[in-house]
Amino acid sequence: MELTDLLQPLNEELLPDDILNRNRIGETIEGYFQDGPFPDLSNYQLALVGVPEDRNAVINSGSASAPDVIREELYALHKGAIHPRIVDLGNLKRGHTPEDTYFALATVLADLISQDIIPIVIGGSQDLTFGQYKAYQKLGQIINLVSIDPRFDLGDIEGELDNQSFLSRIILHKPNYLFNYTNIGYQSYYIDQDAVNLLKNLLFDAYRIGVIRDNLETCEPLIRNADIISVDMAAIRMAEAPGNARPSPNGFYGEEICQIMRYAGRSDKLSSIGIYEYSPAFDPRKQTAGLIAQMIWYLLEGFAYRTNDLPAKGESPEDKHFVRYMVTIEDHEHEIEFLKSKKSDRWWMKVPCRHESPEAYERHYFVPCAYKDYQTALQNEIPDRWWQVYQKLM
Asked: Is residue 313 part of a domain?
């Protein structure tokens, strides 16, 4: 199946009217436009894909109309100092059923990811994360999912798949390709304590909004460990992003979510990201669309400053790009190996694997961490991140 069978080309009327300013993103972006050829994807590093799908949205209908509204705001922004090669592939054609749309989205994303192109999915309800996830099933790749969300979206396991239950479907999906799930920014008054306990029992992570906002750098290693990022715009406080049917008075500030997106762009592991649950009907001044455009701008800036220092399985202790530290923990059979990048000063821990299929988990041997984790090990304590992954690799 060709990508052109699944994608609807863009209307050139979306481009800015000010043709005198050639430094705007809209004046320089290449894309799949009406009456034009399909782009040669070998020229690009990232691809914008709109998905006008919200039939499985609970409460927040109207997000299907989000992609082109976001584009109008994004195209009007000026390029950064270094601008990565990005192409806009238009909007996914909506299937006869939401399940058809998930399949089409998975097909398009799998094709892009296999070509080392990072898809940026805009618009639609957050159940489209399931389509994102299924792209990796097509690729046979075990992945980490990070969701920036005030809720866990576990929903009713026995009910229909929707934007409040997609996570349960991903967790229960067979065969399962989910290695780790991390929630960033949950708000306790929206979460049943049983759900928090469930995630802990599954060795998944969940970080309250207050913990992250108290020190935003806390989330950098979490973001750096993600293959998929799914953003629910309800995670941003209503004063910053009113374009949602159930906004919260609390949540991330605009500059905080932009910094998180910059972390995401800098991560060498990230291979797809989706920004969901924006409904233009609740955004008459396009404030939320403007914020999403700026989030994408910061994602692109982060990508432009990637340092390509993700450790590999066969990393040599003498590798010129890393400083290697070995820490012995009393009464523990393994030394803990830390790697510090000379390029970026970022840290990783190497976790030994005893799984019966070790080759399937190669990408998860190195766990992003912080200097604080190294300090913890020096105090003769096993860092929580190391122990959690170790249990999964046994």
From this structure: no
Residue type, 126: Q
267, 348 contact by CB (below 8 A) = no
Q: Is the alpha carbon torsion for 106, 299, 210, 340 positive or negative? A: positive
* pTM of this structure: 0.95
| Helix and strand element counts for the chain (H, E) | 12, 14
Residue 175, pLDDT score: 92
Q: Are 51 and 30 in contact (CB under 8 A)?
A: no
CATH, residue 168? 3.40.800.10
Asked if 286 and 386 sit in the same domain, the reply is no
Angle at CA of residue 355, ends 350 and 357, nearest 5°: 110
DSSP 85-121: -EEEEEEEPPPSSHHHHHHHHHHHHHHHHHTT-EEEE
Q: How many C-beta atoms lie closer than 10 Å to residue 158's C-beta?
A: 7
Domain containing 338: what range? 322-392
Q: How many Å from the N-terminal Cα to the C-terminal Cα in the chain? A: 39
Q: Is residue 150 part of a domain?
A: yes
Do 359 and 290 lie in a common domain? no
pLDDT per residue as tens digits for the range 43-89:
999 999 999 999 999 888 899 999 999 999 999 999 888 889 999 99
Pick the closest to residue 212 from 164, 241, 251, 249 (CA basis).
Answer: 251
Instruction: Look at residues 152, 120, 94 and name the one whose alpha carbon lies nearest to residue 31.
Output: 120
Cα–Cα distance for residue pair 17/39, rounded to 1 Å: 23
Lowest-pLDDT range of 37-51, 155-169, 354-368: 354-368
Predicted pLDDT at 15: 72
